[in-house]
Amino acid sequence: MTNVEQLRQWIQESKTAVFFGGAGVSTESGIPDFRSVDGLYSQKFEYPPEQIISHSFYLHKPEYFFRFYREKMLPLGFEPNVTHKVLAQLEKEGHLAAVVTQNIDGLHQKAGSKTVFELHGSVLRNYCVRCHKFYPAEFVRDAKGIPLCDCGGTVKPDVVLYEESLDQDTLAGAVSAIRRADLLIVGGTSLTVYPAAGLLQYYRGNRLVLINRDETPYDDYANLVFHDSLGKIFSQLSD
Ligand code: CNA
After folding, report:
1. What are phi and psi of 185, to 5 degrees?
2. Whose CA is closest to atom 30 on ligand 1?
3. Distance between CA atoms of 189 and 177, rounded to whole angstroms?
4. How far, in Å, is the centroid of ligand 1 from the Cα of 37?
5. Which residues are CB-contacts of 192 (< 8 A; sequence separation ≥ 6)?
6. Partners of 117 in the beta sheet?
7. Closest ligand 1 atom number to CA of residue 41
8. How far apart are CA 147 and CA 69, in angstroms?
9. Ligand 1 pocket, residue 122 CB under 6 Å
10. Which spans in 99-162 are helix H?
């Protein structure tokens, strides 16, 4: 049996599978990740990207933060790829219980997934820090300089910056889904951003599958490892 056939069989036998993913899930939709050779962290900026997308930088240099955010982090106008679509289909068929994602692009929901735990929030939600009025992503994209609410407050994207903590309900939901999972498929993540990467420790089964182009620190713990593109593997799962 090939590894893909093995994975296909585990999926068919599963009723509570969880997919845990990162930026690599959306590269085949055209959104660059952070840590691949052509990712954001390989480009040159005035400050390191980790610093720019931190809470203190957002507070102290908001104009620069929003310029960077608009140019490099606001993934609008992209479409779900085969991985997003197959995951939505597996949920519909009753095999997949949840998607846990570090992505902020909303593409899983756009593909039709219903139970999605967005650990790092979503660019599609933006709120005034003063009166909490909601604004769509287009408002932040089209604003000049710092996006401001009618009340004068800053409109802040609902994404988790470095130094900020994760939403507790989202985290609890993700932990609970992973604890109950009979199959955990991890894909498109370098597994280096914590606490997100630490969620793997809650999986109790013996069907841990890793699909990532590059090696990860968890490769040795997995029961099945693919160093391949997600699109290639998932397109073989759909037929
Ligand atoms: P990362 O650290 O950039 O790692 C991505 C991983 O995916 C790398 O190890 C790549 O080898 C792998 N990869 C890239 N493309 C593919 C592919 N097509 N098939 C298989 N593997 C692939 O990204 P993480 O998600 O681990 O890091 C967490 C950060 C990145 C989170 O906070 C995200 O919010 C953030 N991010 C999100 C997006 C998005 O929403 N689309 C884009 C860029 C960064």
Report:
1. -105, 120
2. 23
3. 18
4. 11
5. 35, 217
6. 100
7. 3
8. 12
9. no
10. 107-111, 137-142
Place of tokens 């955010």: 69
| CA of residue 212 to ligand 1 center, whole Å | 9
Question: Which residues carry out catalysis?
Answer: 120
The tens digit of pLDDT for each residue in 24-41 reads 999 999 998 887 666 777
* Distance from C-alpha of 30 to C-alpha of 174, rounded to nearest angstrom: 26
SS3 105: coil
Question: Would you say how long the chain is, in residues?
Answer: 239
H-assigned helices in 112-239 = 137-142, 168-180, 230-237
* Residue 58 to residue 159: CA distance in whole angstroms: 12
Reported pTM:
0.95
Q: pLDDT tens across 178-192, in order?
A: 999 999 999 999 998
**142 alpha carbon – ligand 1 mean position (Å):** 26
Specify which residues 208 forms β-bridges with: 184
Separation CA 214–CA 156 (nearest Å): 33
pLDDT beyond 70 at 129 = yes
